[in-house]
Give the backbone structure.
Amino acid sequence: MSTLSGKNIVKKYGKDTVLKNVDVEIEAGKIYGLIGRNGAGKTTLLSILTAQNPATEGTVTLDGKPVWENEEALSHICYSREISQVTMFGPNTLKVKDYLGTAKAFYANWDEEYAKELIKLFNINPKKRINKLSKGMLSAVTIIVAMASKADITILDEPVAGLDVVAREQFYKLVIDEYAATGRTFVISTHIIEEAASLFEKVIIIDDGQIMIEENTEELLARAYRVSGEETNVDAAVRNFKTYHPESIGRNKVVTVLADEPVDGFDGDVQVEPVPLQNLFYAMCVDGRKEA
Amino acid sequence: MSSLAKRSAKYYFKEGLKVVGLVLGLECLLVIEWFILGADEEHFVDYLFRMIMSVDCIIVVMINMMYSFYGPNWYDSLALSMGARRKDIFIGELIKQATLVVGNLAVYIILIAIFNKYEYLLLMILSSIVSFALGPVGLVIGHKVHNHGKVIVFIIAMIAGCGGGFIGFFSATGVSIGIESIGAYVIIAVLIIAVIIFALFEFWAYKLNQKSMVR
């Protein structure tokens, strides 16, 4: 069983500290959701965990052994990131088949037949150049690399960006089927939270370079509540709880509560509803700040 | 050699072969042009051979440096994103450059032997050595250009252009710039300078490579 572990990870770009003492543990055989705002540090964290970017401080290990420049560790990991259509030198004129050919060259367990199936499924023309692909097709190529790599720990950075709803559902089904068949570990970073939330066994929420939550999704949502009612009643009901993003509408108030443990009930005349993951994430990130 | 190292080496060897194909393809296109331009030349084969050799000397140096320059921010970055190790990428770049230079040289040695034009052999060997020496220079520039911007490329192009103009002026006007007195030592000088440049820049490229990241 493989555990990918990052301890005290700090990443600085000049004077900017992008990751601040991040500890994260990716256990084998689970599907993780990594969610965070733009610029929160998701891609930086993922690239450090996969040795594609050196950390300023901290360690990354796989089953206790460093990942950096370690063939054994790297052979278990695939990080399929967003493909850029533009390079420093102009348009990215690499053909899809050459891009997949590079993946095939480096991933020891590459499944060529599966890759061909996925190319058909997503209706990709392998002779097309990357700079000529639509956003959805770029995402599809990212997904093909991730799935066909057959890596034990497969990380996808915003794989559904640009995909239509049919393609997104196809992707989620692919992940579930592959997970059921092989028990591979998936880490999926996405902004389309609500669609993917049911997929995530564990969720990692990152904000401003720090991990806010790393927890089993069901357990997290079991202790998250949306409490609404008259302002005085709400304030009284939630006074002993950690609250986020209070909103007042006239005499009424709505607040998101994240308790330490599931709560049987709240005191007073208030309405209590469960909070979807997306709304919880929004409340936690927007709380106390100007709303974007 | 570990299996990842082998896969990396194989990948870069294939990339090197592709670049050899590119260089030879470019030459073939130029040959068509020279056929047309030199059709009425008295010694057509000599003319054609002289053109092929003199242009290939330049192309192999340019292409090797150019593809090395592209490496850190494109091809090597792609390999790194697919799980390659930095040291395998560094060795892979050497393999790719060696494949280009040696492959190109091998083709021209065969041509030289077929047409019995051994007077061009030294020229081809020297240009291969210069090409190999300037490969790591391209790599270092490729690593640095991300931080300093493409203006560094323009600066280098300006220096190279001015340098070429300077040498061309003296060559055309027959004014001596003193290097004629080096005479037979020029080959040794080229070798020594090439080795020094190669060693220094490869060491620098290695250091930059160790801290490289996927762009």
User: Anything to note?
Assistant: Residues 158 and 164 of chain B are 10 Å apart (CA to CA). Chain B touches chain A through 28 residues (CB under 8 Å). Chain B has a mean pLDDT of 86.
